Amino acid sequence: MKAEIITIGDEILIGQIVDTNSAWMGEQFNLNGIEIYQITSVHDDHNHIMQAVKNAEKNADLVVITGGLGPTKDDITKHTLCEYFNTELVFHKPTLDTIVERFKHRGIDMNKLNRDQAMLPEACTILPNKMGTAPGMWFEKNDTIFVSMPGVPFEMKYLVEFELLPRLRKTRRTKAIFHKTVLTQGVPESVLAERIGDWEDTLPTNIKLAYLPNPMAVRLRLSAIGDDVEALKRDVESEIEKLQKIIPEAIFGYDNETMSEVIGRQLVLQNKKLAVAESCTGGYISHLVTSVSGSSAYYNGSVTSYSNEMKEQLLGVSRSNLEKYGAVSEQVAREMAEGIKRVMKADYAVATTGIAGPTGGTEEKPVGLVWIAVSGPEKIVVKKYTFVGDQRDRNIVRSGQTALQLLRRMVLGEL
């Protein structure tokens, strides 16, 4: 089943509110075997709404409309839908009874505008709304289902969960959909696409691959559509097994896992402890590590040492190296990692020192330069990176995520 979502409201188009409704519905529909074909936002305008609904009918089995069902003059969805479905508004007593009860419970007097919300299109099936005064409306035309709901998020969610989805399941028109996301790092998108090109070309016709890159990683999402979700799951897992043999070093996790979760799981399996020493990243790595529930099982602590004095006193960095090579150097990064591992009595340690910017850079040591040291039970690795750009926050994020990538490889014995 293909669906289109139409959101109605000038407030969306001018950026006054963010359309979170469509994102939530997209997720819920996907879980129930409904493929989102398109999302459209339109003005509170009769002609615009009519055209959007007409266009959606051409491509979708299900058209979901949100917004424009309130009691004020700018709420014109009901009247527009009456014209589209060649019907008229009629009085619906159960809806009025619900409205009366809600106002009575809140101790508020009703007015004519509120009563008018009980005037509903004769051709629709009413979807009772226990969360508000405007019910949902279900229409059918030319083998397409149209459902209009309030734009208020908690009202929309109630109607989707307790009215729309249960009714759609009874139509037996939904397909099974299964998604699995492979998380990769260390290989640029273009290089990755070239390496897995032959595998991608031989995917079954019902499995689609999407590349979802960000600055530090590329997610590969496999989406399968069919009749049996368990069969789809087996097919996708079989394809992932093939992929693992092609890029084993690039895959670090699946679905919504984070690098921190993957590292934490490995540390628990090894019964090892981690500590962190940060300079240019200012605590960002520690934040990533401790964002995982239960991280206290493997994380001993950290030191954020911006000043040379604290690097000396807390981490044991030698003054001679600070004076000779500077705080942003291979030697200092190495001593920071070894020092924090010793101080925190950890098995693994990661340390960063660099120039996040936008100021502080020189020709010899430009903004974006960072040294990352990762120390394990048997060895230490120190690497130099120069991130292009003077955006401080971005450089901190890239430095922190790169440090975790190196740490993961150290924990897995790949360094």
TrEMBL record:
InterPro entries named in the record: CinA, CinA-like_C, CinA_C, CinA_KH, Competence-induced_CinA, MoaB/Mog-like_dom_sf, MoaB/Mog_dom
SMART domains hit by this protein: MoCF_biosynth
Annotated TM spans: none
Annotated MoaB/Mog domain residues: 4-170
Record Pfam families: CinA, CinA_KH, MoCF_biosynth
Organism domain of life: Bacteria
HAMAP family, per database record: CinA_B
Family designation: Belongs to the CinA family.
The protein, known as: CinA-like protein
